[in-house]
Design brief:
285 residues, alpha/beta, Rossmann fold, eight-stranded mixed beta sheet, 10 helices, globular, binds S-adenosylmethionine
């Protein structure tokens, strides 16, 4: 019964996405497509997987987190709730999501049931959750968009929520080389920020590791994937054939959204050798 209700809610949202013009429903409702952060443009077009390494890297991160039925899981920034649904199939003792966007939080809440599953509207840097209240914390595609200071505050918050031995997973965009010229790095950030309409500040794999280590975590697993979020093969792998076709149809019928998607894809392609996706799993010492 619960699965039926959840599926009905998700179908209702998909139908809304199919029939309403982007910008009229869901996250960032009311904002013009031309000004909207890139991830919400994609979500409005029916894309639900908004992280750089796709579902394959998500599954690797989850495997390394080894979530079981005694775990208390906190997810930062669940977005459209895709990873939340996988986590729930692992039957953790509890699941709490912390999402900044109210509309996204409503969508995620549609997948949750009972007192031990909830989604709070708030910021990952200051969740208001008690110390040591989680055994697993993870967040995807949510640190890259923060300033250096805010990245650190969020990692610190994950640390505060976990007891010793607690696991923290991240899945983020990365720079593939540790020896990138500063000018190339700045140019890449500028180009990404320009098309995404939101700060995009990826770190190298060793910088992500150092950030976590400097806040008291020990790195246990590192996985890499290409940053091919908007490539056809990845779209089909992440969204399924039906979802990819629905996305393509929505892109086709909306000129402004199409312009945004093509701009983003063109920058992702231009910097494909510079950019990648990384998942790190670390343990609180
Ligand atoms: C690129 S989307 C990624 C969504 C989802 N994690 C995924 O990978 O598909 C970024 C998400 O981070 C959320 N977000 C950004 N900063 C946040 C913060 N400080 N606290 C909580 N959520 C945040 C946004 O509202 C959005 O849902």
């Amino acid at each position: 019964m619960f699965l039926l209700i959840t599926r009905a809610r998700s179908l209702a949202f998909e139908t809304q996405v199919m029939t309403d013009k982007p910008g009229s429903v869901g996250p960032a409702a009311g904002m013009k497509t031309a000004k909207m952060p890139g991830h919400w443009v994609l979500a409005r077009l029916g894309k639900r997987v908004l992280r750089p390494g796709g579902m394959e890297l998500t599954r690797k991160m989850l495997a390394a987190l080894r979530i079981g039925n005694t775990d208390k899981v906190v997810e930062f920034a669940p977005g459209m709730g895709v990873t939340a649904q996988i986590t729930l199939t692992l039957a953790p003792e509890s699941y709490t999501a912390v999402e900044r966007d109210e509309e996204a939080a409503k969508i995620v809440s549609g997948y949750l049931t009972g007192e031990r599953q909830r989604c709070v509207v708030g910021t990952a840097s200051d969740t208001g959750l008690p110390d040591d209240s989680a055994t697993v914390v993870y967040g995807e595609a949510m640190l890259t968009m923060q300033t250096e200071e805010m990245k650190r505050s969020i990692v610190r918050e994950a640390y505060r929520l976990l007891p010793g031995g607690g696991r923290y997973g991240i899945h983020e965009m990365c720079l593939m080389s540790d020896h990138l010229e500063e000018t190339v790095r700045r140019e890449t950030e500028r180009a990404l920020t320009g098309v995404v309409h939101h700060g995009v500040r990826p770190l190298t794999v060793s910088e992500w590791s150092t950030l976590l280590q400097s806040e008291g975590f020990e790195i246990r697993a590192v996985e890499l994937a290409p940053m091919s979020l908007l490539e056809p093969r990845r779209l089909i792998r992440d969204e399924g054939l039906k979802g990819a076709l629905r996305f393509a149809w929505n892109v086709f019928r909306d000129l402004e959204a199409r312009r945004r998607v093509l701009e983003m894809r063109s920058v992702f392609r231009r910097y494909r050798k510079v950019l990648g996706a990384v998942a790190l799993v670390a343990v609180k010492q």
